[in-house]
């Protein structure tokens, strides 16, 4: 993962305060755990473990949702997939941090399918969207060829009609309030002008815009 | 109450072409690798497979796919084997994609005599197409039907000779659910012990669900899938 | 319990052959376990135990559905109420042996409510009726005041639209085939005439009626 | 993640009149006797109780009934306390009777974000009145709605300080289900241990479900309900 990804993950980690249960998606979200030292932040992985921690000795049967080896901390618990998604769907997971393909200007996301490509999988994405109390999206602001991932409308199929709560990119942080994107922070050395130029979605500039929150 | 089999083909003796087969595991983790290998060596076809994934390209259920023994797959994440998409485009396989939580819940429902259930998951998305939407207390839900199978092949850690099962870490996943939802349930395990050796409080799958037991000969290690010494 | 009850229980026990999972209701059915020595007959109690055996040391937290102390045999398992009724409703229990208030001539039973009395409880009765593969009813043939419990129609609310498979009383044993009562056996020293006299329900006399099956 | 309370009234501090409260147990077995006793000493009324039974006459929830603190009860077997029928006839209490399996499943559904489910149980009986019947694959089912509560008071055997729970024998019953289905979950236990002392494979209720812990002061023994020494 790049420095850009690490920066996004670090910013997302700052949102995890106090006792909470957090589900981390594949990709950038996985990195978030590296920036959490607080013992009361508990990581849930939907393949059946609450209490994920960094991998010690690799065990091929102890993995996260990305099938990467993980560790279990003291007080961890294993459970089956129906129980795991009962936790998610039932509103017992406080925060989900997810990667996305696209975000629309109402804060709805597309992260499970690309029409025409052999990507036929949804996994736990839709369950996390309807179930997690708070959903934070972490993503690069633009695609590899420079197109905004924050669009007026998603061109890929949406994951849920529910809007996420926060969008964290390498350029900026947006709160989603009443289905509108509110620019809340600029990442270091990023200007408002640059965000405007590289964002297709309409957004509102927040009143207390902080240009350099991450040090 | 389980019968213990020494040979995988004996354990699979009642598996027939055209059946629906549930296969435990999240990718290769917690997959019944010995029984899957047995299926690849058995003359059956036209199977409907219910499993979170179809293995990986050329591994696990991915071999059955290459053998064109799978007519239809019901799962949540076929992306882990890109050959599934190819087969789908070629019209060689039918796919039914469900959110992972809906898949798990539908299997549990099938095992518990529940005909269907209303879930919030998927409302308003492409996966809601053709499904009944209904408001309950002002919240929209989708109706999802229970899933059952003719046969379930699953992976557990230990069994007692009655068929009680316990699992190992995240290799648990779909296995205890599928153990409840098929007419014939075949479990492969690391070890078979005497009744009473598993604590009655820690048994995850009580023996009434399990029909056949087999000691695993193919296991997942850090070095990949290997034959057990 | 009386000798009559014991006789009925003993006859029901004879139906439990080979490996099977059996749920025993409250009352006469509870006695059935005393006549089973076969190690492959496993008793399920819906409050959360498979592998019920006779009580050893009394433990107030180890009870059957009648809240009576029981024991657990080697290979027993405990589970929660949703799992327990998943077993029942999902068709994983081979035989349920139940007490009844009334049986109608189609083999449907009433065993959970008496209108006008303060009996407001159904417990697991309806679940067992829809879920158990085979349902055997054990009951005295008549009420304390001599009225037939095998009626043309139940006057109490029925437990299920499903007919039971067998009715065992102190006078006779009936199979239920295509929703008709077929008299299969007479209990010792009971005549067909007596069964006719004390049974309101219409029944068919089976072709191979055995008058003294229990010795 | 749980907060440990020493005093029952602190554990019950957010319980208010008019709330819906789930109470674990099958009769007195696995009932949270200390927390129930706390409720009998607390100035609350108009409660809706979700519990398999309403205790026994003058015992457990039966005391709350005599105190007329219960406006409505949802359960499967009120027969074990004949005073319930009397109160019902007098119009002092509303009752909603569900088959035991439907009660358990509805609580599980409430905890798992399932809005409702179709069960075979009860079709064609008095308990089907007012409920939607629907054929699924030719079999008739009833629609049953999920149950949730403001507060669940439950009984477990051991907790760790995070709130992970294990249960004891048939005292498990409804407790793990109710632990998932209320906004505030309060568990009384025999013992609280350090995280890591309970095996991750044997934990029945993971800690994310549990808000408050209390060591039991009233326990069920062979001699009945006694205060713990």
From TrEMBL, chains B, D:
<dbReference type="Pfam" id="PF01144">
    <property type="entry name" value="CoA_trans"/>
</dbReference>
<keyword id="KW-0808">Transferase</keyword>
<dbReference type="InterPro" id="IPR037171">
    <property type="entry name" value="NagB/RpiA_transferase-like"/>
</dbReference>
<protein>
    <recommendedName>
        <fullName>Succinyl-CoA:3-ketoacid coenzyme A transferase subunit A</fullName>
    </recommendedName>
</protein>
<dbReference type="InterPro" id="IPR004165">
    <property type="entry name" value="CoA_trans_fam_I"/>
</dbReference>
<dbReference type="GO" id="GO:0008410">
    <property type="term" value="F:CoA-transferase activity"/>
</dbReference>
<dbReference type="InterPro" id="IPR012792">
    <property type="entry name" value="3-oxoacid_CoA-transf_A"/>
</dbReference>
